[in-house]
Amino acid sequence: MPERKVYVIPCSGIGKASASVGRQATYRVVEELLPEKADTMCLALLTLEDPGAQEKVRENWVVAIDGCAKDCARKNVEAAGKPPEIAHRVQDYMKKHKNLKPQAVLDIGEEGKKLVELISQELAEEIDVLLKGGERK
Ligand code: SF4
Question: How far, in Å, from the CA of 109 to the mean position of ligand 1?
């Protein structure tokens, strides 16, 4: 049986800077911080009910990162077969760290980049804890 991975799935919001932050934090985790343990997938595959993507969700651990309270990533993961083991909203981090406000969708600016770093470091730690815990929910 192939080793399980953690799929970090950000929402695909194109009109909110918070969604841009979520996607950049996802890439930081899967490409740089935990490349051996984490991967991502296009949320549209779940929206389109792609059977391969749905199976990956059911057979692996999943982290959903949403830009706002509409929770598009989390809801699509749930619709694919199970709730994500970890779910966060970038807007919640922004409420907690009011000094880190992303500038715009295409250029999140220096504060946005700091927010990406903060979120990705916290996520990497949470994923490590999840993996050490062993069993999925
Ligand atoms: S969670 Fe919010 S920002 Fe992300 S795609 Fe949905 S509406 Fe857009």
Answer: 20
Cβ neighbours for 99, distance < 8 A, ≥ 6 positions apart: 111
pLDDT digits (tens, 9 = 90+) for 5-20: 999 999 999 999 999 9
Judge residue 114's burial from the number of C-beta atoms within 10 Å of its C-beta, 0-12 exposed, 13-18 middle, 19 or more buried: middle
Pocket test for ligand 1, best of 72, 88, 90 (most atoms within 8 A of CB): 72
The residues lining ligand 1, judged by C-beta closer than 6 Å to any ligand atom, are 11-13, 16, 19, 66-68, 70-72
Full-model pTM: 0.94
